[in-house]
Amino acid sequence: MVATAAIVLGSARLIPGSGPGETSVVVGPHPLEGKPAPDFTLAEVGGGDTITLSALRGQPVVVNFWAPSCVPCRAEFPVLKSALAAHADSGLTILGIWFRGGKFLDSPDDVTSFMAQQGADWPALADPGGVVQDAYAVVVPPTTFFIDRSGVVRAVQLGEMTAELLERQLAKIE
To answer: Which domains occur in the chain, in start order?
Structure first.
């Protein structure tokens, strides 16, 4: 039994949960890694522009599922903002998809207010009914997908990103 537990834990990784002191266990790679990213068309929260993922082919794209009340999501925003500025020459695009569900019951005003407070200059997209969230098999924020120029998911980050981890994932798509 001890040997089996060691093998299972060797292939598992702990990720931060959605609140302080919470963790989750993930075994193996995300099912979308190495596959074409599911396409979507979503409007910005508050009725802004509409964005279609496939229209961004030819650019590296980061799709970040987040919620304003998610503590790790809030902590990684400055890291995403810095990376977007540092990688502007590569055409990097970040799309934030507002995660709703579970204990994350933020309002559209919460989303737009937080984006403004952070000075985030990427779109915050609404996902009515969680259709895109389901297509990407996202169960908790933050979950981030790194999509290469040909539209293939090259990496998935579950939980909060540090600047070093974000740079390592970006290297896979630029």
So the answer is: 29-170 (3.40.30.10)
